[in-house]
Amino acid sequence: MRFVRGMFALVVALLVTFSAGAAHAADVRTADLDPAAQSGHARVGSEARVGLVVHNHGPNPTVTAKVVIDVTAPGGTVFGNSLDKYVSTYYLCTVVTPHKRARCKLGAMWYPDNDQPSSVDGPSGWHALTFKVVAKCTTPGRFKLEYPWDPKPSNNSASLVVKVDGVAAKECEKPRPSPSAPKPAVVAAVSASPSVSPSMSPSVDAVVGEPSRSTEAAPLVAEPEQSSDSGMSTGGFIVGGIAVLLGVALLVGALWRGRQRSAAEEFDEGVIRTDQRFMQNGGL
After folding, report:
1. Does the entry feature the keyword Membrane, yes or no (predicted)?
2. Are residues 42 and 143 in the same domain?
3. Fewest C-beta in 10 Å: which of 9, 118, 134, 176?
4. Can you give the pTM of this predicted structure?
5. Domain contains 178
């Protein structure tokens, strides 16, 4: 009995140790990534440099090839030459939309920087992404990080903003809809309608200048009455048919009852005759 209890305690201890080790292994991969971006600017046809940095707030470094970087160029721009060449040739990158969007896996580890982004190359930890301006007006792009063990994915993206030199912000603002004008009166709309006025003039001439036409229109007014009469006649015909069927049914019933009565009477008469003959013969 003691042996069984000892084995049971050993198994429980192993399970607890394994669970703690698994939880510890999961915690080792936890890392809070937080990208930030600076706006860039250039003229139409030139390349703008957008400053970018990625903070790893820890508590651990990221796992190699588990961070996915999703870059979408700002509207009105395309990837610059260096960025376009990188995403199209690096074996860990996949081009989603040519010159506009790509997804790349990070082939290294990002270590916690304690708000000092030393894990990214460039002066003061800032790295530059290049975008070529191809339109007068632009809209923000997106730099997004995907990491399975990030405890706070809400801060995993940053907007990529490119401003066009020589273009004021008001020039790219969408015009606001003007307040709706008051609707015209119904009478004015009817009088201005070309489809209504021709149809009204003949009726006025007919009433004022040609009284005889009003008498010709009388049959048109009487047509609904004819339709109602036809409906009534149809209804009368149906009712009459039903009455005829009922009459026939009653007649057949009367004949059937008459035959039943005649048969009963003949049977009664036969019984009476038999009794009379029996009595005449002296009975028993």
Report:
1. yes
2. yes
3. 176
4. 0.54
5. no
For residues 154 and 131, give the distance between their C-alpha atoms in angstroms, rounded to a whole number: 26
Look at the chain and report how many structural domains it folds into.
Answer: 2
In a domain, 215, yes or no: no
Residue-range definition of the domain harbouring residue 150: 28-172
C-alpha pair distances (Å), 166 with each of 44, 73, 170:
9, 21, 12
Domain boundary among 127, 145, 172: 172
- Give the pairing type, strands 162-164 and 40-42: parallel
Residue 45 in contact with residue 76, Cβ under 8 Å? no
Would you give per-residue pLDDT tens digits along the chain (284 residues)? Answer: 555 455 555 555 555 455 555 544 557 899 999 999 999 999 999 999 999 999 999 999 999 999 999 999 999 999 999 999 999 999 999 999 999 999 999 988 888 887 565 444 444 456 889 999 999 999 999 999 999 999 999 999 999 999 999 999 888 988 777 666 556 665 544 444 444 444 444 443 433 344 444 444 434 334 444 444 444 555 556 766 777 777 777 777 767 676 666 665 665 666 556 555 655 555 55
